[in-house]
Write a structure and sequence with these properties.
- The complex is a heterodimer of chains A (about 525) and B (about 250).
- Chain A has about 525 residues and is mainly α.
- Chain A contains 25 helices and two strands.
- Chain A has a two-stranded antiparallel sheet with strand order 1-2.
- In chain A, helix 14 packs across helix 24, helix 15 crosses helix 19 and helix 22 runs antiparallel to helix 24.
- The longest helix of chain A has about 35 residues.
- Chain B has one domain: Rossmann fold (3-Layer(aba) Sandwich).
- Chain B has eight helices and ten strands.
- Chain B starts with a strand and ends with a helix.
- The chains are: A mainly alpha (about 525), B alpha/beta (about 250).
- At the A-B interface, helix 20, helix 21 and helix 25 of A face strand 6 and helix 2 of B.
């Protein structure tokens, strides 16, 4: 088996070498050492770093607390329609972060619907914090919600028998199991917020954070060396979280006693959490509602009448072309990304060997590289080559940007598939590719579809990895939001956000419906129920 | 004529010798059990016989032909795993006919032979059920049918019944013995269960720490254990078992 996969191994290794290692090394090589002191000593940088840390820490704390309470509500209260609620909670993941900022501007900006009534506005650090919470809490929710599943429910019964109070039970049982997911959530969310430039760009105003600083250095001043140094700072939290995640002990009970926890009756708890959950979900839909309102109103404050003005403008401005670009990129990422990632996971999960270990590490380290930094590295490494300015490069950079999560999905799924199938196939004289096609792929098809959706949705909403790489011919829709918003064309920006949301909902819904029809017991396959 | 001959076989992982100078023969149509505690090297030996693990030294002959370096698919051996390794996306009939279809390039014939084999194993009513819909014992019958239908010269069993409950094991043991009598297939059965090894086999090979300690007929091993290890691991164990049954029943048997 190892021999047959030798060529594929080498191919994957070369591919990851060129797409992961080479750009990062090139980028580091690009640093002008004398710039380091200059940059670190500059007031602008220090200010941006301080701002980034401030909003990052505050927003992360709020985001994880909001998410924990939601996960508690879904898992530990008698709330109804859990599946639907979970889908609603994850809706923010289907629009770009910049759209969340846009929604806040719509509602609470200098001329926002609500803020103009009260004479305040949210632009600045507060806007960044609220916007960051809005788009990051669903991620934290998914991580913590998943963590709840692995808490050994027998222990709650033991705790009850032993007469432990709520406080003791929480720290002795719940926290022991949820420690790792909670830390993962904290680090994942902080990394996201710390490296995101969509929200600060839209509601930050004059409040500059590190990613915006980097963006301005590179796009505005073409100062690649300084940009790279800032990029290295952005790598730090991701790198720390990567280490913590790798080395922290996981208490998740692997046997995860299948028994459903019998909840104590508590009406007050149920009502409080029900209201809380619905309020959070409502706020998500208020943001989306603001898009609709801005899209159909001539001018929200001065002339609030229905109008096709914004639609007409967007159409005359060739929105179809940008949509086409986005679909080519996202479709390409989804198809090729899923294919490559599946083979990577097959090699590392089922063939193994030394080369597979290197491939595994190369794939996983992408987790620590923010999209912006990756985009910058690509821009430095590939400008002037034949691939620059092509759709192909945009597709590849997105595949690498998003590869870690679908890779882990595939890796876990393939590990769960009986390891003896290949041996059975060998003794029965059935070819390896044949058994992969006839058995291994059918056994993991739920995961394959989830991978496809993940790649597609994230490529639709990303602005980070592609920011330095697109040109006028292949510019995706998501970038257009930034352009429109910069020109205060909020109605147009809202329409673009809605188009992206619509396509993502369609893809997710289709995958969700197909996967729901499958008999999960047959494959014993666990997938994320997330939307 | 000897159907399988293992000569001076050794296997090393790094510095650790997991198999030390193994020599034995298996006759055509014989049922040989390889008995030993976990970690004694029996599973490594099985993987070497089937051809998915390289060897450090030695050679394997089948019908006097050197097959040491031969691809697993050309060795004429089949394997049945403890966890059955049935294809979950195929029903019972498809599981059994899958490889045969590819081999014969004739779907109808493959199907007919698969049904015949499944009938022999009393699985006729379950042809269109999926693996998750049948019991462990039934899954093991399907796994056996899937191997038998390809008509291999030798079938290797890897702890094939240790996941079953006692009742099913006893039943399946009898069936396995019958099938062996009918098909005259050579069978090599890996197990850590003394009773299973002794009740099924023509000969038992006791292994410990990568070496063969004794290989002989069950009755001979029982009466004349080669050393203290065999006496403890095999004889004493079986005597204990018999005496505990005697206690239960309260009479001499």
């Amino acid at each position: 088996m190892k021999k047959k996969f030798g060529k594929l191994n080498v191919f994957l290794l070369i591919f990851l070498g060129i797409t992961v290692l080479y750009p990062l090394l090139m980028m580091i090589g690009h640093i002008n050492v004398s710039d380091i002191g200059k940059l670190v000593g500059s007031v602008g940088f220090q200010e941006a770093l301080k701002n980034s840390l401030f909003v990052g820490v505050i927003a992360t704390l709020i985001s994880v607390i909001v998410a924990y309470l939601l996960a508690y509500s879904i898992n530990r209260t008698n709330i109804k329609h859990r599946a639907v609620l979970k889908l609603c909670i994850t809706v923010p993941m289907l629009i770009p972060s910049i759209s969340h900022g846009l929604g806040l501007i719509n509602l609470f900006g200098a001329r926002g619907i609500i803020s103009s009534l009260f004479g305040f506005n949210i632009v600045g650090s507060l806007g960044i914090i609220v916007g960051s919470v809005l788009y990051s809490f669903p991620i934290a929710f998914l991580i913590i919600d998943d963590g709840f599943k692995y808490v050994d429910t027998n222990l709650y019964e033991s705790a009850r028998v032993l007469g432990l109070n709520f406080h003791q039970t929480f720290f002795k049982v719940t926290f022991t199991y949820l420690k790792k997911p909670l830390f993962s959530a904290v680090f994942a969310v902080f990394t996201m917020i710390f490296t995101d430039y969509g929200v600060p760009l839209s509601v930050g105003g004059m409040y500059t954070t590190l990613p915006v600083f980097l963006y301005k250095e590179v796009i505005g001043l073409l100062n690649y060396s300084t940009g790279t140094i800032v990029g290295l700072f952005l790598l730090i939290p991701a790198f720390i979280s990567f280490m913590v995640d790798t080395f922290m002990r996981d208490y998740a009970s692997t046997s995860a006693s299948g028994r459903e926890l019998v909840l104590k009756e508590n009406k007050v708890r149920d009502v409080i959490f029900k209201i809380y959950t619905y309020v959070i979900i409502l706020s998500v839909f208020v943001i989306i509602g603001s898009f609709v309102y801005y899209a159909v109103m001539d001018n929200v404050l001065l002339n609030p009448v229905l109008s096709m003005k914004h639609f007409n403008y967007v159409i005359s401005n060739d929105v179809g072309g940008y949509l086409f670009n986005s679909l080519v990129i996202s479709g390409g990422v989804a198809i090729f990304g899923t294919l490559i990632t599946y083979f990577v996971a097959y090699v590392t999960g089922r063939v193994r060997g030394k080369m597979a270990r290197i491939i595994h590490i190369l794939t996983i380290i992408t987790l620590a590289v923010p999209g912006m930094v990756l985009g910058l590295a690509y821009s430095i490494s590939f400008s002037g080559t034949f691939i620059y300015n092509t759709f192909l490069l945009l597709i590849i950079v997105n595949i690498i940007h998003f590869i870690a999560s679908p890779y882990l999905m595939a890796y876990n799924a393939l590990q769960k598939v009986n390891m003896n199938y290949e041996i059975v196939a060998k003794t029965c004289n059935v070819g390896l590719l044949r058994i992969i096609k006839d058995v291994i792929i059918p056994c993991t098809k739920l995961t394959i579809r989830e991978m496809f959706a993940y790649f597609f949705v994230n490529s639709m909403i990303t602005i980070s990895a592609v920011a330095f790489l697109y040109n006028t011919k292949n510019m995706p829709l998501s970038i257009l939001i930034n352009t429109y918003e910069g020109n205060m064309m909020l109605g147009e920006a809202a329409i673009i956000s809605l188009i992206i949301l619509m396509f993502n909902v369609i893809i997710k819904l289709v995958i969700y419906l197909i996967n729901r029809r499958e008999d999960r017991r047959k494959y014993n396959e666990v997938t994320y129920e997330s939307f | 004529m000897d159907s399988l001959e293992i000569k001076n076989l050794s296997k090393r992982y790094g510095k650790k010798m997991v198999l030390k100078n193994i020599n034995f023969e298996v006759k055509n149509g014989e049922f040989l059990s390889i008995l030993g505690p976990s970690g004694c090297g029996k599973t490594t030996l099985l993987r070497i016989l089937i051809g998915i693990e390289d060897i450090t030294e030695g050679s394997i002959y089948k019908d006097k032909k050197d097959i040491t370096k031969l691809d697993p698919s050309k060795r004429g051996m089949g394997i049945v795993f403890q966890n059955y390794a049935l294809f979950p996306n195929m029903n019972v009939l498809e599981n059994v006919s899958y490889a045969l279809k590819i081999k014969l390039k004739n779907k109808e014939k493959a199907k007919r032979e698969a049904i015949k084999m499944l009938e022999m194993l009393n699985m006729k009513e379950h042809l269109h059920k999926y693996p998750h819909e049948i019991s462990g014992g039934q899954q093991q019958r399907v796994a056996m049918a899937r191997t038998l239908v390809l008509n291999p010269d030798i079938i290797l069993f890897d702890e094939a019944m240790s996941a079953l409950d006692a009742d099913n094991r006893l039943k399946l043991r009898g069936e396995l013995k019958n099938i062996q009598k009918k098909t005259k297939t050579t069978m090599i059965y890996i197990t850590h269960d003394q009773e299973e090894a002794f009740s099924l086999s023509d000969r038992v090979m006791v292994m410990n720490d990568g070496e063969i300690v004794q290989i002989d007929k069950p009755s001979v091993i029982f009466r004349n254990p080669a050393n203290q290890y065999v006496k403890n691991f095999v004889t004493d164990h079986l005597v204990d078992k018999v005496s505990s049954i005697q206690k239960c029943i309260g009479t001499d048997i």
